[in-house]
Amino acid sequence: MLKWALIFFVVSIIAGGLGFTGLSAATAGLARILFTIALTIFLIFLLLALVAGELFT
Question: pTM for the full model?
Answer without folding.
Answer: 0.78
